[in-house]
Amino acid sequence: MQANLYADFQRTLDNCSSEPIHRPLATQGHGQILVFGPKRPRFLYAMNEHFPEWLGKPEASLWQQPVEAWMPESLQHSLRNMQLSDANQTWDPIPFCHDDQSFDVMPHVYAGMTFMEIERSKDQPAAFSVIQRILNRLRSCRSLSELFETTSEQVRKILGYDRVMIYEFDRDFHGKVIGESKEPHLEPFLGLHYPATDIPAMSRELLLKNRSRSIPDIQLPNERLSFNPDLGTAIPYLDLTMCQLRATSPVHIEYLEHMGVRATLTLAIVQEGKLWGLFACHHDSPRTPEFEERKIGEAIADLFSVRLFELQRDERRNRVASAQESEQKFLEQIRVGDHYKLELNQDGKYLEGICIADGAVAVSMDGVLCSIGTVPVNEDIMALRNWLIQCKDGELFVTDDLRKMVPIAAGFSTRIGGMLAARVSEVSQSYLLWFRVPHSQVIDWAGDPSKTLESARFDDSEQVRLSPRNSFAKWQEAVEDRSLPWEADEIATVSRIRKTILKLEFQRTAANVMRSRQEFMQLIYAASHDLQEPLRTQLNYLDLLSEEMHTAKHDEWLHFVGRASHAVNRMQTLIADLLDYASLGMQTKREPIDLQSLLAEIQEDLSQAVDKKHAVIRVGKLPWFKGNRSELKQLFQNLLTNAIKYVSIDTIPNIEISVKREGRFVVFSIVDNGIGIAEEHFQKIFLMFQRLHRREQYDGTGIGLALCKKIVENYDGQIGLCSTVGKGSSFWMKFHETSILGDFE
Amino acid sequence: MKNKINLVLLIDDNEDDNFFHRRAMEKAGRVEMIDVCLDGSDALDYLRNMGKYEIRGQDYPRPDLIFLDINMPRTNGWEFLDKYALLDARFIGGPIIVMLTTSLNPDDRQRAEGCELVSEFMTKPLKQQTFLEILDKHFPDLR
Hints:
The structure holds two protein chains of two kinds.
Chain A: E1 26-27, E2 32-36, E3 44-48, H1 51-55, H2 59-64, H3 73-84, E4 89-90, E5 94-98, E6 101-110, E7 113-120, H4 127-140, H5 144-159, E8 163-169, E9 175-182, E10 193-194, H6 201-209, E11 212-215, E12 223-227, H7 250-259, E13 263-271, E14 274-283, H8 291-333, E15 334-336, E16 342-344, E17 359-364, E18 367-373, H9 378-390, E19 396-399, H10 402-405, E20 418-423, E21 431-436, H11 449-455, H12 468-479, H13 488-547, H14 554-582, E22 591-594, H15 595-605, H16 607-613, E23 616-619, E24 624-627, H17 629-645, E25 654-662, E26 665-671, H18 704-714, E27 718-724, E28 728-736, E29 740-741
Parallel strand pairs in A: 23-25
Antiparallel strand pairs in A: 1-12, 2-3, 2-7, 3-12, 4-6, 5-6, 6-7, 8-9, 8-14, 9-10, 11-13, 13-14, 15-16, 17-18, 17-21, 19-20, 20-21, 22-24, 24-29, 25-26, 26-28, 27-28
Chain B: E1 5-11, H1 15-28, E2 31-37, H2 40-48, E3 65-69, H3 77-84, E4 96-100, H4 106-114, E5 118-123, H5 128-138
Parallel strand pairs in B: 1-2, 1-3, 3-4, 4-5
Helix pairs in contact in B: 1-5, 2-3
């Protein structure tokens, strides 16, 4: 087992993330390292313990003698130049021969210390042609998936590893393998997910500074760093951030062992100063990439990053363009109805193109208007709507963790990860909701998890903590309920839709205010007209009586008084009807009403008129209706009264009330065999105070059908008629099926 | 010289009003005959000797003066005027006076003012004095 790498850190099961991996007191065994400090720059500060043996000089002489005594002159010269610079810096490698073998000496200055690392050098690939080749390949990639595939393939070809993976970090530094090129016999890792703890923050920080990291052989024993005893440093401490030879954390070695990996090279992919992802290159036998190979790797990672940025921008543009098209089409579908209700004139199919989502709904106070894809059940959607109404941020609510943000969502039978909600009506509190299922549910798990587990080598004495299989389980746990985050452009689109619909609602409100004002004025004129008429009549008769007090005969007197009191009666009825009309819509309480029993009650009330005319009324099977009892009674009573009243003297009224379904609507009809109505009057009869007959013929105030129309419209229904003069009329009322309860067919 | 006009037509569904208007005109004593139609369609039949008036043959009534109510069932005052405008000249009578039940509705007043067929409009009821003033204005040769 490895000796402890740190003087001041003891690894336990829980403190992996705080391991100071940048300053182990050891180096990897494939090279030599020389370190010089600022105090005595000509004398060694530290070296790997086998350097004296490698150089063929006794250890003591290296510590005690200045570099001039033992270092080849070319290297002395470089060392002097480096020590004159005070900034952190890296220089080109210096070729160096030792024992007839060629080496690279790689010098750098970091944190005040001067480092020289010595590694074997081989025949170098021609960097220029390699870069040229990969640049052309990257430029020809037209999609992200193509880019990932091509780049991983090229990196493997150029750097010669068994497996090259492109690994992307998410917002929380959990990672996913998005591109892979490998030897055919290897198990694929493409699509696998890893928790953030697999590549701890410290490693990510190191990779941002030192863009490549090579471990040539995990089985090669580490070498301890020796420190110059003459320098008398109390606690040996050396920051190896920029050193290639830095020893590897035993945790990581163990992890690689379990995956059957012998050598690795890791290249940082940096975008906008942040670690976007990694190239992870694995090899099942020792592999030492020399300096130039590593630098080519870093250059490829940079080129990849540039092309990635371009393609992401293109894909975002395409997504925005297609979302805008859906947005446009969706807005064409939608309108705000007379009663401020959101109405979709189609099935809302463009709703789903606006965001990338697994499902979408439009919901108003009447329920779910349309629903597409994976969404909660209707009751749950209504519960969500109620929650949003209460919520102060409910106007535009965005979450990728619904169960955490909205506690009621934990009980939903459909598992939802994220939700994007927009309140699109202030009056009816309607919402558009987009849903995403939890991310963990949509993972493409490329390998068979159980097989990976088998291939991990167990040691009875030591717990297997890290393996791809375990990592996936840990990752799943970390992201279990959450969805992918909503993109800024998606939120912007939804916000824009919200504003557009609210503007429609505002326009509707303004139009409605104008219209109700006009209606109100019309009503006032009409009412004053119809009320003045009987008043004037009374006044006229009173004048007449006073004028002819002495001349009129007794029966003339009676006639005059009779006419006057008739006018008073008319006025009373008129005022009562007007009050009924004015109070419509004041009662907002709606409850299920059994229309069958309501109609029976109305027939009972009208029994006198029915008996007088021997009327026959047949009522079909009627459903329950969600409404106000007294309003519904007025509605049916007025229609039935008209059907009984407007018949010619020699006809026995024959009336039939029935209901039928027409698509998503329910249509009631009241058919009579009365005098009928000419088609030119079909609109007029529903206007206030419009009568088709003189009072002497058929009595009435001209309010009844206006009242019916207003009631029907309060329930978002329509009323109309078909009629033939002399044969009869058929009044129909059409309501949306959501107003109806129970079965009637 | 004769100081009476021959025929006045009242078009109004309100029988009480008709009673009082007839009475006021009779008291003024300046009209030979007063006919009543209870709505616009009735009046159109009356002017053309159609329907129940057919028996009168070719002798069209052509009233000297027409008092027209606006608010009537079936064919109201405005609808009557629309159809009257299309009538053959042989059916056309004298000036038309529109009678408004109330002067409250500015729409009705404006409409009456804009209608070329309407000579005048007045507010109900028609009193003896008003009737005389109308005669003076529209039949100055009569006195």
